[in-house]
Amino acid sequence: MSRVFILWNESYNVGITTIDTQHKKLVDILNELYESFVDQTSGQKLSGILKELTDYTVYHFGNEEQLFQKHGYPQAKEHLEEHKGFIARINAFSAELNSGKTKLTFQLMNYLKNWLLNHICGSDQAYVSYFIDKEL
Ligand code: FEO
Questions:
Q1: Per residue in 40-88, pLDDT tens?
Q2: How many CB atoms lie within 10 A of CB 66?
Q3: How many domains, the chain?
Q4: Cα(80) to centroid of ligand 1, in Å?
Q5: Does ligand 1 lie within 6 Å of residue 116's CB atom?
Q6: What is the predicted pLDDT for the residue at 1?
Q7: Nearest-atom index, ligand 1, CA of 79
Q8: Is residue 3 part of a domain?
Q9: Beta carbons of 76 and 68 less than 8 angstroms apart
Q10: How many C-beta atoms surround the C-beta of residue 25 within 10 A?
Q11: Cβ 12 under 6 angstroms from ligand 1
Q12: Is residue 87 part of a domain?
Protein backbone atom coordinates (compact mmCIF):
# COMPACT_ATOMS: atom_id res chain seq x y z
CA MET A 1 0.00 0.00 0.00
CA SER A 2 1.36 3.38 -0.94
CA ARG A 3 2.08 5.65 1.98
CA VAL A 4 2.31 8.76 -0.13
CA PHE A 5 0.09 11.38 1.44
CA ILE A 6 -0.06 13.74 -1.52
CA LEU A 7 0.57 12.72 -5.12
CA TRP A 8 1.69 15.61 -7.30
CA ASN A 9 -0.74 16.22 -10.14
CA GLU A 10 0.35 18.18 -13.22
CA SER A 11 -2.82 20.27 -12.88
CA TYR A 12 -1.23 21.85 -9.78
CA ASN A 13 1.43 23.53 -11.94
CA VAL A 14 1.22 27.30 -12.26
CA GLY A 15 3.62 27.30 -15.22
CA ILE A 16 6.41 29.27 -13.52
CA THR A 17 9.25 26.77 -13.13
CA THR A 18 10.75 28.10 -9.90
CA ILE A 19 7.34 28.28 -8.22
CA ASP A 20 6.31 24.80 -9.38
CA THR A 21 9.63 23.38 -8.12
CA GLN A 22 9.04 25.02 -4.73
CA HIS A 23 5.46 23.73 -4.53
CA LYS A 24 6.70 20.19 -5.27
CA LYS A 25 9.30 20.55 -2.53
CA LEU A 26 6.57 21.60 -0.07
CA VAL A 27 4.58 18.50 -1.04
CA ASP A 28 7.72 16.36 -0.52
CA ILE A 29 8.22 17.77 2.98
CA LEU A 30 4.56 17.16 3.84
CA ASN A 31 4.91 13.58 2.60
CA GLU A 32 7.99 13.17 4.78
CA LEU A 33 6.08 14.56 7.77
CA TYR A 34 3.22 12.15 7.10
CA GLU A 35 5.57 9.17 6.85
CA SER A 36 7.20 10.05 10.16
CA PHE A 37 3.77 10.58 11.71
CA VAL A 38 2.54 7.15 10.57
CA ASP A 39 5.80 5.53 11.73
CA GLN A 40 5.33 7.23 15.11
CA THR A 41 8.87 8.54 15.04
CA SER A 42 10.10 10.68 17.89
CA GLY A 43 8.62 14.07 18.62
CA GLN A 44 12.07 15.51 18.08
CA LYS A 45 12.19 14.25 14.50
CA LEU A 46 8.64 15.47 13.82
CA SER A 47 9.59 18.88 15.20
CA GLY A 48 12.59 18.94 12.87
CA ILE A 49 10.47 18.18 9.80
CA LEU A 50 7.86 20.70 10.88
CA LYS A 51 10.60 23.30 11.20
CA GLU A 52 11.81 22.43 7.71
CA LEU A 53 8.22 22.82 6.46
CA THR A 54 7.90 26.20 8.19
CA ASP A 55 11.26 27.49 6.95
CA TYR A 56 10.68 26.37 3.39
CA THR A 57 7.15 27.78 3.39
CA VAL A 58 8.48 31.16 4.54
CA TYR A 59 11.13 30.99 1.80
CA HIS A 60 8.56 30.08 -0.87
CA PHE A 61 6.04 32.72 0.20
CA GLY A 62 8.86 35.27 0.15
CA ASN A 63 9.68 34.32 -3.45
CA GLU A 64 6.07 34.72 -4.55
CA GLU A 65 5.75 38.01 -2.70
CA GLN A 66 8.85 39.38 -4.44
CA LEU A 67 7.28 38.51 -7.79
CA PHE A 68 4.06 40.26 -6.76
CA GLN A 69 5.95 43.36 -5.76
CA LYS A 70 8.19 43.41 -8.82
CA HIS A 71 5.26 43.10 -11.24
CA GLY A 72 2.61 45.02 -9.30
CA TYR A 73 0.22 42.10 -8.86
CA PRO A 74 -3.13 43.71 -7.95
CA GLN A 75 -4.32 40.90 -5.61
CA ALA A 76 -1.07 40.87 -3.60
CA LYS A 77 -2.58 42.20 -0.36
CA GLU A 78 -5.22 39.47 -0.05
CA HIS A 79 -2.71 36.82 -1.06
CA LEU A 80 -0.20 37.98 1.55
CA GLU A 81 -2.90 37.76 4.21
CA GLU A 82 -3.40 34.10 3.34
CA HIS A 83 0.34 33.48 3.60
CA LYS A 84 0.52 35.27 6.93
CA GLY A 85 -2.40 33.29 8.36
CA PHE A 86 -0.88 29.96 7.40
CA ILE A 87 2.55 30.80 8.85
CA ALA A 88 0.89 31.94 12.09
CA ARG A 89 -1.04 28.66 12.27
CA ILE A 90 2.00 26.41 11.76
CA ASN A 91 4.13 28.51 14.11
CA ALA A 92 1.47 28.19 16.81
CA PHE A 93 1.22 24.46 16.27
CA SER A 94 5.03 24.04 16.33
CA ALA A 95 5.20 25.89 19.65
CA GLU A 96 2.51 23.61 21.12
CA LEU A 97 4.23 20.51 19.80
CA ASN A 98 7.64 21.58 21.13
CA SER A 99 6.22 22.33 24.57
CA GLY A 100 4.49 18.93 24.67
CA LYS A 101 1.02 20.49 24.84
CA THR A 102 -0.15 18.71 21.72
CA LYS A 103 0.67 15.91 19.31
CA LEU A 104 0.53 15.64 15.57
CA THR A 105 -2.85 14.27 14.49
CA PHE A 106 -4.53 13.18 11.26
CA GLN A 107 -6.69 16.24 11.63
CA LEU A 108 -3.67 18.52 11.51
CA MET A 109 -2.06 16.54 8.68
CA ASN A 110 -5.28 16.94 6.71
CA TYR A 111 -5.42 20.65 7.53
CA LEU A 112 -1.87 21.12 6.16
CA LYS A 113 -2.65 19.10 3.02
CA ASN A 114 -5.97 20.81 2.33
CA TRP A 115 -4.63 24.29 2.99
CA LEU A 116 -1.66 23.79 0.69
CA LEU A 117 -3.60 22.20 -2.18
CA ASN A 118 -6.48 24.69 -1.92
CA HIS A 119 -4.00 27.56 -1.92
CA ILE A 120 -1.99 26.23 -4.88
CA CYS A 121 -5.12 25.41 -6.89
CA GLY A 122 -6.96 28.57 -5.85
CA SER A 123 -5.07 31.73 -4.98
CA ASP A 124 -1.82 30.67 -6.68
CA GLN A 125 -3.56 29.60 -9.89
CA ALA A 126 -5.33 32.96 -9.82
CA TYR A 127 -2.09 34.83 -10.56
CA VAL A 128 -1.21 32.67 -13.59
CA SER A 129 -3.15 34.79 -16.07
CA TYR A 130 -1.58 37.98 -14.68
CA PHE A 131 1.99 36.66 -15.01
CA ILE A 132 1.50 34.87 -18.32
CA ASP A 133 2.76 37.78 -20.43
CA LYS A 134 5.51 38.81 -18.02
CA GLU A 135 9.07 37.71 -18.54
CA LEU A 136 9.79 35.53 -15.52
FE1 FEO B 1 2.57 29.16 -3.52
FE2 FEO B 1 0.88 31.63 -2.43
O3 FEO B 1 1.89 30.14 -2.17
A1: 888 788 999 999 999 999 999 999 999 999 999 999 999 999 999 999 9
A2: 10
A3: 1
A4: 9
A5: no
A6: 46
A7: 2
A8: no
A9: yes
A10: 15
A11: no
A12: yes
Ligand 1 centroid – CA 53 distance (Å): 13
Structural domain that includes position 98: 10-133
124 close to ligand 1 (CB < 6 Angstrom):
yes
**Residue 126 Cα to ligand 1 middle (Å):** 10
Q: Virtual CA dihedral for 33, 39, 43, 46, nearest 10 degrees?
A: -10
Say yes or no to pLDDT of 7 above 50.
Answer: yes
This prediction's pTM:
0.94
For ligand 1, what atom is nearest to the CA of residue 22? 1
Q: Is residue 5 part of a domain?
A: no
Query: Which residue CA neighbors atom 3 of ligand 1 most closely?
Result: 61
pLDDT beyond 80 at 136: no
Contacts of residue 48, Cβ cutoff 8 Å, sequence gap at least 6: none
3-state helix, strand, coil in the chain (%, to 5): 75, 0, 25
Asked whether residue 72 is domain-assigned, the answer is yes
Looking up residue 107, the CATH number of its domain turns out to be 1.20.120.50
- For the CA of 61, the closest atom of ligand 1 is 3
Q: Bigger pLDDT: 101 or 3? A: 101
